[in-house]
Fold:
Amino acid sequence: EVPILISEDTVISQPAKILNFLRKQKYNADYELSAKQGADTLAYIALLEEKLLPALLHTFWVEAENYCSVTKPWFASRIPFPLSLYLPGKMSREALNRILLTRGVPPLYSLTEVEAQIYRDAKECLNLLSKRLGTSQFFFGNTPSTLDAFVFGFLAPLYKVCFPRIQLQEHLKQLPNLCRFCDDILSCYFRLAVSGHSPAGQDTVDANLQKLTQLVNKESNLIEKMDDNLRKSPQHPPRKLTTLKLATGGEESSPLNRLSP
Amino acid sequence: ATLCFQAFLQMCNLPVRVVCRANAEYMSPSGKLPFIHVGNQVVSELGPIVQFVKAKGHSLSDGLDEVQKAEMKAYMELVNNMLLTAELYLQWCDDVTVEEITHPRYGSPYPWPLNRILSYQKQWEIRRKMKAIGWAGKSLEQVLEDVDQCCQALSQRLGTQPYFFNKQPTELDALVFGHLFTILTTQLTSDELSEKVKNYSNLIAFCRRIEQQYFEGHDKDSSASATSRSAKRSLLK
Structure:
């Protein structure tokens, strides 16, 4: 199960438990939020899971062209044989199952109708996020919080991965403030080259796979990055973007080590 | 859930009459309850009903700006995500509640063995859904924790205001009222769920206020559903 946080001898899975663990260690990205902002965080996360997640699952795991040409080869290449033959298919089936069980209720009887509805909901959700973000750097002002990490986690793969079927991605690209939000976090916390152009030809797939490998662990990585920054001054609020110092080399350990089947 | 709609329609100042039918689920166009029957149109579920009412010229959220509307939708999802799922979990995945309350109530309009077959079928369907969204592995304590977290968020958002968006009620107020009131007044095998809500005094005051303002003097019929909760008692004692 991913993501997984390995700290000394402790292994923790699931985002909620990872966040709880970090908070107990006194690392908290929501330190400066008011009670109402904390409540808003919970509400927006629910919005993401209900309205955006089904379409994301569909784009990655159910849409045949996307799944066969991008998702499956990428996951299979990172999972040891013989699980690589079985796990991607299982994840795909689970994704479809989840979509149908939660959204495929009457009067939507066919998969096409369910798909149309979930993409409509996802586009509406992106619009709402864009309106909420406005011109701010992050969702609660100038410093990032848990909500920013969650939104980034949902949006970044959609934004960056080159899929053959990209209707949702096109919609996201029409919301410049969300794209800028993703780019800011990528350049600040992940130090990836921020470029909309991917190399043509044979290298395209490799470059995409590499980017996706790094992005898929963003949640645990982002938390650990905040962890590292906060370790230097525990209980202090997260630093603003402009004053963030890039740590010396070796800190950016390979995300491949964290991926666990 | 019926109460959310009643509250919403009352807030829009639209007269509504609640009727009981054993085959209500089959009458509904989406199979879900409740639904409204207006003239020769039938509309079910909160989203479409709100749209329908809006098309007829009534809306509770017109006064909100774009950011507030986004917030309102987010909080409505929070209620659906946490409260509604917790209610379903308690009704269908907690063995004690299922045996003592849900099975008898759900199967009550039907003769044996149909009552048992239908309620097992429904239970299986709900458990499948819980498994898909990752709630099947949760214990009752964890579910109650989630409910508490949700109530805390709602309580913090409400603060000392009369409604979630200050002076005027919106769809969110109707939705929250419907769920909280149901939790507070439905008889279950234990009081743990309602105790979680009772920890937040502003939420209790909120429910009382809406009950007084919109339901005083109206008949409290039981909802039009075979799966409905037991008859609602008033919060005012």
